[in-house]
Design goal:
Layout lengths: L3 E4 L3 H15 L3 E4 L2 H10 L11 E5 L2 H6 L1 H5 L5 E5 L8 H10 L1 E4 L5 H14 L6 H11 L3 H14 L5 H6 L11 H8 L3 H13 L4 H19 L8 H11 L4 H19 L7 H12 L5
Parallel strand pairs: 1-4, 1-5, 2-3, 3-4
Helix pairs in contact: 6-7, 6-8, 10-11, 12-13, 12-14
Family: Belongs to the DNA polymerase HolA subunit family.
EC number: 2.7.7.7
Catalytic activity: DNA(n) + a 2'-deoxyribonucleoside 5'-triphosphate = DNA(n+1) + diphosphate
Length: 295
């Protein structure tokens, strides 16, 4: 069974490639990012699956653990992928050389500007959006060409405006390119600063920006805070990692897990039609978590 070593900063294309490998092999895929998950998965590499078919085990950005467990990778009877999202190699030279001998190496560089625009055009059409050149450039600038964020935005528009005409759908794109920044809102939530959150949230909403932008940014924040809590936050500039680690001190692991679970439930309810909007419930949920009573 073929193993893979995938590296490069294009997270979206890498994940798409990995899913394509799983599909071509006719096997399921398991992604492992958290330290304790990877430890357990590495221990299972030498064991046969109980269900006949082997899962494709994907180990993402945990170089210290993989360097120490190199022998388990080399002697594995199950297929695996080592996926590092940094542009620079993080693994030791010994690990890199060993991986080269037993895996297929695939580089995932960032797309060029034109390739990114072509991708946005094709993806938008899947969501019944016919974007102009100006709208595509606006989306690129607002998201810094982050393909995952762009797809989330287009998917959000599709689910919110399903059944509306094209003009109504395109009007929702205005929120992506708004000049107001979402970061003060996110920072206030991360640090549980109630008054700052109320002020920045009001400014954010009065600009006409809908709650889904906050939802996706909040989802990413919760994930990063949890990774910081377990010392598994990698692939970001050091000053960003330090900032998130500091913010994570305001939260327990259980709080973050429960928050992430609630966000998933809200998104599921909207997509299945059980909840028409998340605006009120999202605000109330955030307030419940960031409110710190005065002593």
């Amino acid at each position: 069974m073929q193993n893979y070593h995938i590296f490069g900063p294009d997270h979206f294309s890498a994940k798409k490639y990995i899913r394509g490998v799983g599909k071509s092999l006719g096997i399921s895929i398991e992604f492992y990012s958290f330290h304790n998950e990877i430890e357990r998965a590495l221990d299972n590499l030498s064991q046969q699956s109980l269900f006949g078919k082997e899962d494709l085990m994907v180990f993402r950005d945990n170089q210290d653990l993989l360097d120490a467990s190199l022998e388990k990778l080399l002697t594995s009877t199950r297929p695996w992928v080592v996926w590092e999202t940094s542009e620079k190699s993080k693994y030791s030279s010994k690990t890199k050389q060993a991986l080269l001998k037993v895996s297929q190496v695939v580089e995932m560089p960032l797309l060029s500007e034109q390739m990114t625009r072509d991708w946005i055009t094709k993806t938008a059409l899947k969501y019944r959006l016919n974007l102009s050149g100006e709208e595509i450039i606006s989306i690129q600038e607002a998201t810094d060409s982050d393909l995952t964020m762009i797809q989330n935005e287009l998917q959000k528009i599709f689910w919110i405006s399903k059944g509306s005409d094209s003009k109504d759908q395109l009007s929702l794109l205005s929120g992506i390119g708004q000049p107001i920044s979402i970061f003060p809102v996110i920072d206030a939530i991360a640090l549980k600063r109630t008054k700052v959150f109320l002020t920045t949230y009001r400014n954010f909403i009065t600009q006409g920006i809908d709650e889904w932008q906050l939802f996706f940014a909040l989802s990413r924040l919760i994930q990063n805070l949890y990774l910081a809590k377990i010392n598994a936050l990698v692939g970001l500039p050091q000053f960003v990692i330090s900032k998130i680690r500091n913010q994570s001190q305001q939260w327990t692991k259980d709080e973050l897990i429960e928050f992430a679970t609630k966000l998933s439930e809200y998104e599921y309810d909207v997509k299945t039609g059980d909840r028409p909007s998340i605006k009120t419930v999202l605000f109330c949920d955030i307030m419940k978590r960031v409110y710190v009573p005065a002593i």
